Amino acid sequence: MAEENKKIKLTIDNITVEVEPGTTIVEAARLLGSEFAPPTMCFYSKLEGSGGKCRTCLVEVAAGSAADPRPMPKLVASCRTQVMEGMVVKNITSERVLDARNGVVEFLLINHPLDCPICDQAGECYLQDLSYDHGEVGTRTEFVRRTFKREDIGPLIQLHMTRCILCYRCVMVADQLTDKRVHGIVDRGDKAAISTYISKAIDNDFSGNMIDVCPVGALTDKTFRFKNRVWFTKPVDAHRDCETPGCCGKATLWLRGEEVFRVTSRKDPWGEVQSFDGKPGWICNTCRFDKKKSSDWVVEGLTQISRHSVIGANKYKVLDVPKETIREVMDGRDPKLLMDIHAVSDVNNPAIDLSKLNRPAHSGDFEK
Hints:
The protein is an alpha+beta fold. The protein folds into 4 domains: 8-108, Ubiquitin-like (UB roll) (Roll); 116-221, Alpha-Beta Plaits (2-Layer Sandwich), CATH 3.30.70; 230-312, no CATH class; 326-365, no CATH class. It has 7 helices and 15 strands. It has a 5-stranded mixed β-sheet. A 4-stranded antiparallel β-sheet has the order 12-11-10-15. The longest helix is centred in the N-terminal third of the chain and has 14 residues, at 95-108. It is globular.
């Protein structure tokens, strides 16, 4: 029994980490921090069976295990590959991985419309972040991009199939959260698309979670459509006593002043829904679409957003400035006097203190 619970030790980008048996490479890399974790577009730890479709998480296994240290001949999907004792993994330290990841991004953008300026997902789109890190300046695409006819899937969710990358997340969340899934993948090849069964509307208590799991702008909130940009809103954590079974009642409100523009589930650092009491914190459609007043919620405080995110701009206090100690060391003298060259310089006009000018200096401020 003790042997079964023994942790596995592996090395990722020259850093050793210990994890539980059955852990995948991407989950182990996430323990080291965001800079070491492979990007994911289809993998979602809260959804069973996710991963293995987008290939953005490819890594190089330089040593398979301590028992068999031979390298794996091909790059592997880190979201589908379990760790082994003594495994050596290269992610950001492998040129093969970075080159392959650039190619995957190019394929994802082949048919993806570049309509970020009008997309409601702009500012929190994982494809935007991925293309910024691994995309090329130009494109080799010479043919017409794939397009789809617009389809209405209900009054709450907008489907933009031209933006879809077929990650299957929305299908999985509907399949695992609802009793009657009415949408899925239809057709094959370049005709494959997300669609509903005989054009039925998606109508169930947890359908809004499809919006939260979508990594691009293929599924957006109709009640928020074209109303504001996410970086102009202030995200705050809030909760309410929800009577819907399965709803955690904990959400993020996106405010502009006192007005609630939209409600989403709370996200962890990996963009996935947070877990509460060991369960994913999914929220129901009542919380998401009907409770759009601040008085409907108990506001807990500002949501923690990465400083690298455009959403976090001007949302946090300024950095603490260290205490100035020069004046104390110099017996109370003004620090500016230490570099006051006005009296000894042959260039500056001694009658003019350049540091006190409320305008740019010009030729008249200097000696001829």
